[in-house]
Amino acid sequence: MSIRVKICGLRDPETAIQAAHFGADALGLVFYEPSPRHLSIELARSIALAIPPFITRVGLFVDAPSDYVQSVLKGVPLDLLQFHGNETPEYCSSFNTPYIKAVRVRPGLDLVKYCQIYCQARGLLCDAYVEGTPGGTGAGFDWSLIPDNLPLPLILSGGLDPENVATAVSKVRPWAVDVSSGVEKSKGVKDLAKIEAFIAGAKNAPK
Ligand SMILES: O=C(O)c1ccccc1N[C@@H]1O[C@H](COP(=O)(O)O)[C@@H](O)[C@H]1O
Q1: Residue with CA closest to ligand 1 atom 15
Q2: Count of domains in the chain?
Q3: Distance 84 CA to ligand 1 centre (A)
Q4: Is 1 a residue whose pLDDT tops 80?
Q5: Residue 72: how many CA atoms within 13 Å on its side-chain side?
Q6: What CATH number does the domain containing 93 carry?
Q7: What's the whole-number mean pLDDT along residues 81-98?
Q8: Ligand 1 center to residue 117 CA distance, Å?
Q9: pLDDT digit string, tens, across residues 22-59
């Protein structure tokens, strides 16, 4: 099975198009104001419309008011929502749009139970826990905390980069990987060479 790769935090159409040409399967647009990758609805729309077909356009939210998510969905063509905060299963299911749920992995957290609670999610995204910041931190975590028997497709993220992604894919065998900081030259500024190397590293990881 070939690994899927999501590149998160695109901020201009040209970089999104390049990432698609390098083989990205999904591209993430951030709607979380404190993030350096936050987009206005207008800019997000121009990026989403530039993305070629058969690439999943993902909108990322963190504990956003429902009417804000609705207004983004009205203005921006999105295929999938990524909820990266403490959203309830009822909230996540209320937008009539497929979603993935992010969880910040910590010792003692029962990830199988978490999947059962979010059973409507299309996948579970496992990220690092960093006090005070919901994600996009570049921090990694102990992959051995992820059980083998997760009932949802696993999307591995948190501190991945072109150097460690092949090891992550070979060891953890996730359905997909997701990256933001690891393919940037500075906070919020993507690096095309790193995006290309990350995608190649993930897709050519030893089986
Ligand atoms: O990218 C962001 O700015 C962001 C903001 C708030 C929550 C999540 C965010 N991104 C997601 O965080 C993880 C880990 O990213 P990193 O590669 O460690 O920087 C990833 O799933 C991003 O989609």
Answers
A1: 136
A2: 1
A3: 8
A4: no
A5: 27
A6: 3.20.20.70
A7: 98
A8: 22
A9: 999 999 999 999 999 999 999 999 999 999 999 999 99
